[in-house]
Hints:
2 copies of one chain form a homodimer.
Chain A lengths: L2 E12 L1 H9 L11 E7 L2 E7 L7 H8 L3 E9 L15 E5 L2 E9 L19 H17 L6 H16 L4 E6 L4 E4 L5 E6 L4 E3 L6 E3 L9 E6 L10 E2 L5 E5 L2 E2 L2
Antiparallel strand pairs in A: 1-4, 1-12, 2-3, 2-4, 5-6, 6-7, 7-8, 8-14, 9-12, 9-13, 10-11, 14-15
Helix pairs in contact in A: 1-2, 3-4
Protein name (chains A, B): Class II glutamine amidotransferase
InterPro entries (chains A, B): EgtC-like (IPR026869), GATase_2_dom (IPR017932), Ntn_hydrolases_N (IPR029055)
Keywords (chains A, B): Glutamine amidotransferase
Amino acid sequence: MCQLLGMNCNTPTDIVFSFTGFANRGGLTDHHSDGWGIAFFEGSGVRHFVDYQSAITSPVAELIKSCPIKSQHVIAHIRKATQGRVSLANCHPFVRELWGRYWVFAHNGDLKNFTPTLNGPYRPVGTTDSELAFCYLLQQLRNRFGENLPPLADLTQELRELTHYIAGHGPFNMLLSDGSALFSHCSTNLYYIIRQHPFASAHLSDQDISVDFSEVTTSKDRVAVIVTQPLTTNETWTQFQQGELKVFVDGAVVE
Amino acid sequence: MCQLLGMNCNTPTDIVFSFTGFANRGGLTDHHSDGWGIAFFEGSGVRHFVDYQSAITSPVAELIKSCPIKSQHVIAHIRKATQGRVSLANCHPFVRELWGRYWVFAHNGDLKNFTPTLNGPYRPVGTTDSELAFCYLLQQLRNRFGENLPPLADLTQELRELTHYIAGHGPFNMLLSDGSALFSHCSTNLYYIIRQHPFASAHLSDQDISVDFSEVTTSKDRVAVIVTQPLTTNETWTQFQQGELKVFVDGAVVE
């Protein structure tokens, strides 16, 4: 299985603290060393980094830790291959375009006997069950809503049905964003925390590093972090219910 | 206008030498400082880096110069904005998926009164004439050939007709690759060189750097470099004819 990290904020924020702990799971504090990736929305554009090296040895991961990129929507993934060989094409997150927006997707889990009919424009490039599920999701959204982005409530309802269906084939913890909202579905393991005023100090569980968020934020900032296993030791993370889909906008749960 | 750089090889090769000279045009030896980008195929996967900082100040460009990435198909672009503001979504190259392959596209030129009907699955995310032309190209390829990649000769013939049509709206120098071939169309300025055994030394025109390719190659290597203006001072570059589309595979012109 793999590890997921998502961030959704009301103001562009860097993910260096969380990513530093998370990246250690790519070969140091955990054994997810079959590649990694991260995508940052900046406006409607996306910076997308993938690597089949482990996150602790990748020079690109080092760049991300040393050059803070500020974003309102971030999705990161560390891979432990279950289906599909170790290759760049199989690294999450995946990016496709729908309705003139980029969509970014990453998955933790293992789908069995999942062979949906793909008769739309989205085809997997790699060989993972995850990219197949992403192509299916986008195809079904396009079939359901046609040529235009629907209201968030309608989109959420459709995604609840689609993720419920896919999760019938195996664990389907996933993060999905179109640069306006971050959708999170939990089959087995997903936690979140919302950091807001008054900010406090946090200490990583994967490395002996603390940060006092009150020193690097304003009182209006709000940041949601979503992850397969809590990243800090001294904060209270909320566990998702199994089968739950939550939608984050501006650092808050809205659906 | 902008600058383009492409590389197509019969064995994975790093582009550090050419990119070093090219990147200097992003604000140092030329005034193309409205962003830049580069995409590398590795197998069917793509590493895609874009930045709206100039190529000479971007830490990501520094990473690419210091950490050689080997690839058989590379497309790079330095932007001087003509249409569309300076933003990440407007940085070339653009990436989309068609027929289960990633397609990478970059454009130099300025299209006027180009308003094709987009009724397929591809929509621009940004506001450039270039991304619009890319979406139109992919839509028309999908309309023409359906669900499967056609033979290269048929694909080339269709691209000749499509690029000819688009170039009727203004300069359309472009590079396009699906990870198996590199398609290059010249409206105004495009040059190429094929480096092969016996390899010689080359000296950059944008920086006082030379490399002796015989020291870093084998006798079987073959590398085509395509660029809007020649990168070296002591080699003979071949200028494309206006309106010409050339196809490179394994470092050779095949169509």
